[in-house]
Amino acid sequence: MISLASMARAYTVSGTTYTTNGSQADVQAACSAAPDNGTVKVVIPAGTYTWSGKLTINHALTLAGAAAKGVRILNNNSSSDMISATSTANGHIDIHWLHITQVANNGFGAGYAISADRVDSSKYTVMIHDCAFNNSAVFTFMVRCSANGILFWNDKFVGQGTIGGILFSCQKYGYGGWNTPDTFGTSDTTGLNNSYVENCTFRNGESSSNFDDNSRVVWRYNTMQNSGLNSHGQETSIYGARAWQIYGNSFKITSGNPNNLQAWFVVRGGTGVITANSMDNIPFKGGIQLLVYSITRGMNDGAGGVFCPLAYPAPRQTGWGWSANSNAAFGVGNDTNAGRLVGDSSPGEFGADGIGATLDPLYVWNNTGTETSSPNYVFTYTYPGDNCGHGLQIATFLKQGRDYYVNVAKPNWTPYTYPHPLHTQHSL
Fold first, then answer.
1. Half-sphere exposure of 14 (CA within 13 A, CB side)
2. pLDDT at residue 302 is higher than 80
3. From CA 138, how far away is CA 82, in angstroms rounded?
4. Is residue 31 part of a domain?
């Protein structure tokens, strides 16, 4: 008699290689059967496959196409992640040689082609490399990183004109994810305090990637074709971006600005470095846009309400960070009625968010290209209108030489090892 279990299994085992038939169910069976020790490679043979469910990977293993080209997966899942990968304390998850095209409408956060997470206390992570992602027909990001320390290299992303690429949103850390000192350059002693994106290509996405809650991202040596970068502060997100390092990239634009890029990088919170990039001029727009939206738009107070800063500095604003030795308070009133938007009944304090803020300017220097001679190479912008009604001005919150520096190198900054050591160890 043939058991149902044996009937369900189609993959074959040869040593530590599990070769599947390419169906999502069979790949799931192989991944679930693999020991959680990083020794098994689950292989998808050449072909085109439509996946409509969720593949969950929570064992240390490699998931790969049989060759660099020839494996195409159509994501027809409109309601959840197609691949949910969480590395454990026992080894890395290595994903490569997959070409994924989004076909179902999973926009507005319904799901992602790949959702990556990790056990932060471990020395292991999720590595996504030598893959191709195409969401040219759907308004969505293709990959979500729910933890810092996720790695990308040699990937290609094609967006749909507005968004595409990678969303970095690490809400799981809570306030503690933002309220810790920076991990710039070589101060990332493990190589996993920041997520790293290197040697990738992004095309056709006004916001090809978004740095959001508690994210710490190193974006280096990538090619950005008609594609910019975006970030969120606490004005619409719970915590906002923490820090970013953008260097060695090539920002290219074709005639006419086809995606209506407003800037190569829209900075809405946190701090970082921007250096050694090549930037084409964006006609009638700008290069690096600096904002503090919360002063006129209001901000998310983490409790379902919206609160307006009353004075400099605004919580988690551009050009500020966090220090364990700082006693500086954010410029927010504690009066339950002060600075409140109409209809907000939540408490007027930010609690744990109020002490430890420290001036931590962003630095822009040593970039090249026609954008660097534009009047709007680095410029500030105020959210239109004033929902808060306090009449606060962006010039009060963003001052060159205090909150940001242009053509000044960040003192004592040394970039982290390139290529990333795991990139070197797992190169194909």
1. 3
2. no
3. 15
4. no
